Prior knowledge:
Elements: H1 7-10, H2 41-48, E1 51-52, H3 65-68, E2 72-76, H4 79-87, E3 92-97, H5 105-119, E4 123-128, H6 130-137, H7 141-157, E5 166-169, H8 174-184, H9 189-196, H10 204-218, E6 228-232, H11 237-249, E7 253-258, H12 266-278, H13 291-300, H14 303-306, H15 310-323, E8 331-336, H16 341-350, E9 355-357, E10 361-364, H17 369-382, E11 392-396, H18 422-430, H19 440-446, H20 454-463, H21 468-479, H22 485-509, H23 511-516
Parallel strand pairs: 3-4, 3-6, 4-5, 6-11
Antiparallel strand pairs: 1-2, 2-11, 7-8, 8-10, 9-10
Helix pairs in contact: 6-10, 7-22, 8-10, 10-11, 13-15, 16-17, 18-22, 20-21, 20-22
The structure holds tryptophan and iron/sulfur cluster.
Iron/sulfur cluster (SF4) binds at residues 434-436, 448-450, 453, 455-456, 478, 483, 485, 488-489.
Catalytic activity: tRNA(Trp) + L-tryptophan + ATP = L-tryptophyl-tRNA(Trp) + AMP + diphosphate + H(+)
Region (Disordered): 1-29
InterPro entries: aa-tRNA-synth_Ic (IPR002305), Rossmann-like_a/b/a_fold (IPR014729), Trp-tRNA-ligase (IPR002306), Tryptophan-tRNA-ligase_arc (IPR020653)
Amino acid sequence: MMTGDDPLEESESGKPVTDGGAAGADDVALDPWGSSAVSDYRKLFEEFGIERFDEVLEEVPDPHYLMRRGVIFGHRDYRPVAEALREGEDAAVLSGFMPTGDPHIGHKLVFDEIIWHQQRGADAYGLIADLEANSARGMSWDEIDEHARDYLLSLLALGFDPEEGTLYRQSTNRELQDLAFELGADANFSELEAIYGFDGGTDVSHMQSVVTQMADILYPQLEEPKPTVIPVGPDQDPHVRLARDLAERTRFFKVSKAYASFELEPAERDLVADLYEQLDPAEFDDDSLRCVHVAEAIEETPLEELGVPADTLGSVLTKLEEAGMEPVRPRTRFFDRRATDEAFDALIDAIDGEKRVYENHVDAFELEVGEAEELAREVEVDNGGYGFRPPSSIYHRFMTGLTGGKMSSSVPASHISLLDDPEDGYDKVKAATTGGRETAAEQREKGGKADECPVYELYAYLLAGDDDEFAKRVYDECVGGERLCGDCKEQAAQLIREFLAEHQEKRAEVEGLLEDADIELESPRA
Ligand code: TRP
Ligand code: SF4
């Protein structure tokens, strides 16, 4: 496969924040190293199953402005993290940076997201993906060291607390690599081929960087399981999905609902569940509903009404008939996936109330699925397992390049580096394309197109900071025709100049903090 540049390089403009959806309809591909052309965010919901962030917003205590403004537009399973933040329970946040160039204002979004979670009590992790930069991008160790330092200084300058949080680089973290090795045993080449388009020509180190990222994502849970959020761009979603799968595969037990002693496939189980609800035990000989009765009921019901494919029907009937007079009773099942014998025995002991033990599973009759999941995790952790919770993620929109089109780290005029001289930052904004009209008169009449304006994005994503009213005023004045691009850019350019000057001052101030932080700044190989 091709290895492109960083995510921002290849991504198309995220539409700014007020449209909530986004227009346009190119193909959508999520490729961490390739061309993630995200021109239609709606497709990410429909095709990839990313959930809309606005639907969890209310559950987030004191949400960040990037959340409020829809810059963070999507998530996977963020609710447990929001809940932990609300309740003051353990949670973690982790993201990683490939040190391939200067940190820029796109990376600042992720820095801010990590810091925000840290300030709300989450264990915070920032990592330098040096193995990935070396294998997927061919960066030398010297270059990596230089860029790594720059990322870390900006992260600290923006408020990351290195004493409370954890910083590491992939290459010198032995625990991480052990975890990566272990997770690698649960993934195979065909899977990486399907997810990432790897082929026979993909080098092994690149594959190793994938399992390393899987380990990164689960690293915060190494000591104990906790809700963990990974803030990233949507191009990283394939990694998040794989990590969620792998987390599941390491688990000792699988908890599910069941109706009888034998296993049913999900579609079969739904059918039996429906009939269990419909049938009245009083209508059968000894007042109990038995497997044969369910089988008979199925046979009497026309196929259309059952709404299941014929082969499901065949297999469920066989199972029910074989079980014969066994009563149908709902229960919570712990299926033994990869527990040690000791862990399986410990689980049996730990289950309260009526239970039944089989060769590969235990059924509990007085436990809800939720409680059972907690119990399974507890027993797993007590018996040497990880008990990983599936990691959550949040996704932010990509910024539009200042020159229009993509923001590209190889086109300096298209982005603002956090290391840009403040005067250069000023000039770049002054030279930016806008969503303005041909003439001032036309703009006064029709209003500007803030939704298509990279300068407006600068305000919303960065310059307005926490001040929603300011962001809204810029937007309203623009689309209302009261704001003209010249003045608007002048204001933005001045604000960027101020921001860069302040940020760079802070970077200088945190040099000492970085020296004291527990991370190797020089690669042993450089
Ligand atoms: N692959 C990420 C990138 O392209 C970097 C990365 C490595 C990362 N490990 C991670 C991101 C863990 C989030 C979580 O920039
Ligand atoms: Fe963009 Fe400002 Fe012009 Fe509106 S007035 S189009 S926000 S530069």
